[in-house]
Backbone:
């Protein structure tokens, strides 16, 4: 049954749209995710551009205050639940996790396909709310406003519930895969760091997301039945909603960043042609970040009405997460030291990550400090911080991962020159957009506000111009990808000279990944 | 975690299943006795009830669900869930019980 | 049917053998059960916190629960867990007929549970004990204005549990159907094992729900 014809690969072996929509092949499912997530990113990006356009000038520019609240809600909800949470794990993880461990597929291929359909269903429902009754609560659905607002909250809550289930099933699949499907000789200390990252992420997905599920259920109960659990007028506690919400949502941000860190590990070591510095430390720090992430959720709630004692406890615990994160940063930089570095676009994005994530991370420690956060909470300082880690971190890693792995996924090389241009546009555009927001936040500009005082206008204008640069960068990268697919040069098996298992198979890989089960006897980064 | 093929399809024998079921019935009756005696137990009452529930749960997990004969990893995975639940409760409770008391709105 | 069909189960291509697939599937099921524990557990946490905040109100609500029905339902579910475990046991031993009886008994127990639950719910509705804002404080003569919170918890927790009972019953029906078709044998019964673990979770949740709602209140 195994077909060793070298012209057949996972793309051309089975034809027709149904062979894609009902495929159980993890590579095809990864591609399905890629197309859908890119579409959602476009939607979320349009919302972002809308926000920045409105904020270009003092006073209403092109929308009412209510419309602005809707724009910012959907920008957040779409980006969090439909782009960054699924992003790297569902696209690159699905495609490469089995290849990285020498397996023929993930543990539960049908569950994998179900995960994608659940994301599609949830996304369709979320987008439907745009046409039924738009939400304006912000992606965090804080009570009591979310109880009273007229938006179609119940539908959105069910949509997010379903998308959460998609995430849970992916995580479950990855854990079982990493535990049970490693090829012969592939001990846990020989798997690539990308796999360690996905594994840590998967643990978070399985443990944290169910609490989101119950939070959403309780919110729906509150809205439909008026039980009084979160509504202060009925004796409920709105802060308890925040406890429940952030118990998931803080680990969620690590679901968003850990896979990105895994990609960066792969890129740094490959493009320095040097074995990664401190493999074990990086592996354990992934687990460490995942573990600590459960203990810190209250740092989103310092000024919510939470007790001072709780705030102090959370502040202290949050500082701890800086330790494993810093270990990674130092190890990546140490890998670069005396490496044979080449600056192709995947590496440019990885280096960009190091710079931008450092700023994002350090400002995170600032915000972790209770006394400072009292001033910065709900200002643009927070907005800048999380965009530095989410966009400057995760999105840069995703772009780097795309350029790195596209030759393997599609068997074609992309236009390197244009790719470098996209890096320049995105990197510069990103800093122009978000660095001023640190200053705006320190000056006191509140977030999620439709308008601001004239003193903030010039920095807001600079920020908006930056957003156009980012938009241009991403549009050009869309072109780069399509151009690659249509007329890219044929890619060799291993264009980057990397040592992980996916580069030992053809580009694109055959349907069953490996003609013969691989046997490994060494680690994944034995350059020298 | 390699398991020999003999372990994988472990069959829990009928006497063990029967004894577990009887123990569970017995503990349920014990729970009711504890409930009726709650005026004597006072605040300990709920704690006793939950301890008994915990024992029942352990029996179901160990014998009916076969965790006793299963891999360490599966046991660890399951235990982890309870640990994080405890964490959610502990810190939320910490917050609520360290707040400066204010008369409630009712 | 006294003999078991001995055809070999064709395992998926990415596994080394059928046993490899079995242990992997089991781990997958346990991972899923963790999510169920966390989800129900969140409700328990919320219940504990509000119980501590409004102890008298919770006591008033709990008075409306009939411990005899809760107690009976506990025994019913424990018995159903026993028959479920026996169902798997007999498939492992190759005794298809006894397996059929036990799987059927499990479904029957689930149905009994739901019937008792139906009577509990309708009785409460009759007295006006609705959840949340639908509870008419004047009509039921409640001492506490937010008694609706207690019943919100009650209906949500038992309702969510009930949905899982119904789901479990449907899954057992499906598995029973496949068993009668001869799909399972002592070397392949993974779906039965999985459904069994799900059913035990349903029992597990009730083991905690019963004292929490009926006794502690």
Residues:
């Amino acid at each position: 049954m195994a077909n060793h014809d070298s012209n057949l690969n996972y793309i051309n072996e089975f034809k027709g749209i149904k062979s894609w929509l009902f495929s159980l092949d993890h590579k095809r499912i990864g591609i399905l995710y890629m197309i859908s997530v890119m579409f959602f990113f476009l939607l979320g990006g349009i919302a972002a551009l809308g926000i920045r356009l409105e904020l270009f000038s003092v006073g209403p520019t092109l929308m009412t205050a209510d419309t602005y609240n809707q724009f910012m809600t959907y920008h957040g909800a779409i980006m969090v639940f439909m782009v960054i949470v699924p992003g790297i794990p569902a696209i690159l993880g699905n495609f490469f996790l089995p290849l990285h461990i020498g397996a023929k597929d993930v543990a539960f291929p049908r569950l994998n396909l179900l995960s994608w359909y659940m994301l599609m269903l949830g996304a369709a429902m979320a987008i439907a709310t745009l046409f039924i009754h738009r939400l304006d609560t912000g992606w965090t659905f804080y009570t009591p406003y979310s109880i009273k607002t007229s938006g179609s909250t119940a539908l959105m809550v069910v949509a997010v519930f379903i998308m959460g289930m998609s995430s849970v099933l992916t995580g479950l699949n990855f854990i079982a895969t990493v535990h049970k499907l490693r090829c012969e000789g592939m001990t846990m200390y020989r798997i690539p760091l990308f796999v360690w990252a996905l594994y840590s992420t998967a643990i978070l997905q399985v443990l944290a997301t169910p609490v989101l599920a119950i939070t959403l259920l309780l919110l729906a109960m509150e809205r439909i039945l008026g039980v009084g659990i979160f509504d202060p007028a009925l004796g409920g506690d709105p802060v308890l909603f925040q406890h429940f919400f952030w118990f998931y949502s803080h680990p969620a941000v690590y679901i968003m960043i850990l896979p990105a860190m895994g990609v960066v590990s792969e890129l740094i070591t490959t493009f320095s042609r040097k074995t990664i510095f401190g493999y074990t430390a990086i592996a354990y720090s992934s687990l460490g970040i995942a573990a600590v992430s459960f203990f810190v959720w209250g740092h989103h709630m310092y000024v919510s009405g939470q007790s001072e004692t709780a705030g102090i406890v959370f502040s202290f615990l949050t500082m701890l997460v800086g330790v494993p994160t810093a270990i990674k940063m130092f190890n990546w930089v140490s890998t670069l030291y005396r490496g044979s570095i080449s600056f192709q676009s995947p590496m440019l994005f990885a280096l960009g990550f190091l710079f931008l994530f450092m700023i994002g991370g350090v400002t995170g420690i600032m915000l972790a400090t209770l006394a400072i956060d009292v001033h910065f909470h709900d200002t643009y300082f927070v907005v800048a911080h999380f965009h530095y880690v989410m966009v400057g971190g995760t999105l840069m890693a995703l772009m780097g991962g795309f350029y790195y792995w596209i030759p393997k996924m599609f068997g074609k090389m992309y236009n390197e020159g244009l790719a470098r241009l996209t890096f320049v546009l995105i990197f510069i555009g990103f800093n122009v957009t978000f660095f001023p927001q640190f200053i705006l936040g320190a000056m006191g500009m509140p977030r999620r506000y439709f308008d601001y005082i004239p003193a903030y206008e010039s920095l807001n204008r600079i920020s908006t111009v930056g957003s156009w640069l980012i938009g241009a960068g991403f549009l050009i990268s869309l072109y780069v990808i399509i151009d690659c697919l249509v007329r890219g040069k044929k890619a060799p098996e291993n264009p980057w000279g990397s040592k992980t298992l996916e580069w030992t198979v053809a580009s694109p890989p055959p349907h069953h990944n490996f003609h013969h089960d691989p046997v490994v006897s060494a680690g994944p980064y034995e350059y020298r | 975690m390699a398991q020999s093929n003999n372990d994988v399809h472990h069959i829990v024998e009928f006497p063990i299943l029967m004894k577990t079921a009887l123990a569970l019935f017995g503990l349920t009756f014990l729970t009711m006795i504890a409930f009726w005696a709650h005026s004597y137990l006072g605040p300990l009452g709920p704690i006793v009830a939950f301890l008994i529930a915990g024992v029942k749960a352990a029996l179901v997990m160990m014998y009916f669900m076969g965790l006793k004969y299963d891999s360490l990893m599966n046991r660890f995975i399951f235990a982890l869930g309870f640990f994080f639940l405890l964490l959610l409760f502990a810190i939320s409770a910490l917050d609520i019980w360290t707040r400066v008391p204010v008369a409630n709105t009712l | 049917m006294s003999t078991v069909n001995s055809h070999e189960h064709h395992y998926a291509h990415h596994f080394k053998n059928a046993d490899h697939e079995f242990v992997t599937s089991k781990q997958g099921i346990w991972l899923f059960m963790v999510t169920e524990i966390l989800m129900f557990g969140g409700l328990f946490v919320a219940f504990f916190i509000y119980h501590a905040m409004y102890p008298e109100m919770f006591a008033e609500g709990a008075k409306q629960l009939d411990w005899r029905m809760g107690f009976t339902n506990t025994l019913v579910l424990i018995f159903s867990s026993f028959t479920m475990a026996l169902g798997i046991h007999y498939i492992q031993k190759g005794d298809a007929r006894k397996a059929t009886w036990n799987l059927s008994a499990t479904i029957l127990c689930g149905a009994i549970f739901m019937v008792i639950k139906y009577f509990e719910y309708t009785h409460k509705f009759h007295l006006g004990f609705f959840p949340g804002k639908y509870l008419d404080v004047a009509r039921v003569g409640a001492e506490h204005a937010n008694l609706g919170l207690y019943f919100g918890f009650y209906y949500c927790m038992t309702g969510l549990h009930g949905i899982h009972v119904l789901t479990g019953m449907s899954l057992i029906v499906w598995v029973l159907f496949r068993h009668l078709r001869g799909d399972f044998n002592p070397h392949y019964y993974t779906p039965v094992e999985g459904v069994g673990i799900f059913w035990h979770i349903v029992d597990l949740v009730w083991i905690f729900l019963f004292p929490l709602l009926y006794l502690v209140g």
